[in-house]
Amino acid sequence: MAGRRARTGRGWDASPARPGDDDTPRPRRARRGRTGDTDPEAPPAPPRDEAELAREICLRQLAVRPRTRAELAGALAKRGVSDEVSAEVLDRYDEVGIIDDAAFARAWVASRHSGRGLARRALANELRQRGVDGEVASEALGELDEETEAETARALVERKLRTARGEPDAVFRRLVAMLARKGYPPGVAIRAVKDALAAQSAEAAEFAEQIDADALADAEGELDRDSRPLG
After folding, report:
1. Is residue 10 classed exposed, middle or buried when 0-12, 13-18 and 19+ CB atoms within 10 A define those classes?
2. What is the pLDDT of residues 207-225, one digit of tens each?
3. Of 203, 108, 188, 110, which Cα lies nearest the Cα of 156?
């Protein structure tokens, strides 16, 4: 019986042909251009409209979180948008309510007070850093009354006392300093810590009884005023 003929190598199991197996010309594959390659014969891209760029920058900024007009103006300036175009775009956003510094300030005060326990002094500083007008900031801060501020200070102290370690005087200083960093006036901070210590233990209550909150608050207030920069 004659041996089986060898396969032609053109079926499903065929090996790829090697160069030179036949003389059939093959089309050359198009060369992929590298990143940044440009077609010298392509027409130049039209210059981008500056107002369109400004709107795109603003919308990207606003997609992250609400922004004040000053924050958006700063972002546009960094990207080289002219003052004229920036004012035109931001004025339009003011008109339609996309940016609203008063609403921003109210929301900022409510969120940062409830979430971080910040007092009016610290909140005023944050609003100033974000370019909120002083009068607009004052109106927003006016919604945070003294009673609410004192209650928040007491809640912060009680939460910290659960894990506080050390002698009552050391704990007292740490907690007053914590409230001061959050913007609470000396009187509010000292009274909040004194009341919380008095309710914690007999030893802490005995220490708290020795604290003259009013006198200490006055002394702390004088030190605070003296430490502020002139002008």
Report:
1. exposed
2. 777 776 665 666 565 545 5
3. 188
